């Protein structure tokens, strides 16, 4: 990957993203995600519509943007392909239940996030801002239409992006459903500027739905679907007591499109030696004073 020359590979975030990029290099039946050529901190993903739901048969594309602090802070995701469940081009934070509230677990990965997203597609939007309540037939139409959808930025055509479904896919599919029971997807706060150069919505939400014309305009969305997270499949780092699962939020900044990851642990290298030097000088001065007395 060309990125290796561009980024400080000692930075935890860079290391982690490169590792995940290598692990996800091959498309699977259910998902695929890779960084953009020129920005390790922005990826495009493709996910298969949830099996046995109105999204079955659909393949959807989107962006993932990582904060400089990743994996300590979670990524944000947004859909680019019309799907009838999430508004397009809206940054959504994925919140995964964990032991500590407001905490993203660094052990969660992009794969986890993608599976959670797949599992979450068929859940009720509950009328929350940012979620779309298209009727089932409309979603099915969009699912069909999605196969021909092409990303203008990375060139992916949906029907060619994932591996064909096999029996193996069932496992991922089940994992996706299990994850969906303990996640939240929340719209970002409207404080940040909206990306203005997004790929456009080619297939467009189907006519007759009042939400469709407002897709670009509703900045302030805050949809949060919750569910009692007592499912058993939790990623390695946390296996919280089922009754106590809480819902940390992904609350990363979305401003790092051209972030330089070498900054991320730079301050530590400065502050720690500085403290040591100051401490040594003070100790020396004190010692000298006592000796002179
Ligand atoms: Zn793309």
UniProtKB/TrEMBL annotation:
Q: Which PANTHER family match?
A: UBIQUITIN-CONJUGATING ENZYME E2 (PTHR24067)
Q: Name its GO BP terms in alphabetical order.
A: protein modification by small protein conjugation
Name of this protein:
UBC core domain-containing protein
Q: Which residues form the UBC core domain?
A: 12-162
Q: Which SUPFAM superfamilies match?
A: UBC-like (SSF54495)
Biased composition range(s): Basic and acidic residues? 183-197
Organism in which the protein naturally occurs: Diploscapter pachys
Bias (Polar residues) ranges = 221-255
Compositional bias annotation for Low complexity: 210-220
Record key words, sorted = Membrane, Transmembrane, Transmembrane helix
- Span-the-membrane segments of this chain are 266-287
Q: Which domain of life is it from?
A: Eukaryota
Q: What are the start and end residues of every segment in region (Disordered)?
A: 166-257
């Amino acid at each position: 990957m060309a990125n290796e020359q561009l980024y400080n590979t000692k930075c935890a975030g860079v290391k982690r993203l490169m590792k995940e990029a290598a692990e996800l290099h091959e498309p699977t039946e259910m998902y695929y995600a890779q960084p953009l050529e020129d920005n390790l901190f922005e990826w495009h993903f493709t996910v298969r519509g949830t099996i046995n739901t109105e999204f079955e048969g659909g393949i959807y594309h989107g962006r993932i943007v990582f904060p400089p602090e990743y994996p300590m802070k979670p990524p944000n995701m947004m859909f680019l392909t019309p799907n009838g469940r999430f508004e397009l081009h809206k940054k959504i934070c994925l919140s995964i239940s964990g032991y500590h509230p407001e905490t993203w677990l660094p052990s969660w990965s992009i794969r986890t996030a993608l599976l959670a997203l797949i599992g979450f597609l068929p859940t009720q939007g509950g009328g929350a801002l940012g979620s779309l309540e298209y009727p089932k037939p409309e979603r099915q139409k969009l699912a069909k239409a999605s196969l021909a959808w092409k990303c203008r930025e990375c060139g992916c055509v949906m029907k060619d992006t994932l591996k064909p479904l096999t029996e193996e896919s069932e496992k991922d599919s089940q994992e996706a459903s299990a994850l969906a029971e303990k996640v939240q997807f929340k719209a970002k706060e409207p404080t940040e500027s909206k990306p203005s150069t997004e790929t456009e919505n080619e297939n467009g939400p189907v006519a007759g739905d009042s939400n469709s014309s407002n897709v670009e305009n509703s900045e302030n969305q805050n949809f949060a679907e919750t569910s009692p997270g007592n499912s058993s499949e939790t990623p390695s780092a946390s296996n919280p007591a089922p009754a106590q699962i809480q819902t940390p939020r992904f609350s990363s900044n979305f401003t790092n499109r051209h972030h330089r990851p070498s900054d991320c642990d730079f301050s530590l290298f400065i502050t720690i030696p500085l403290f040591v030097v100051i401490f040594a000088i003070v100790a020396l001065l004190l010692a000298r004073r006592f000796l002179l007395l």
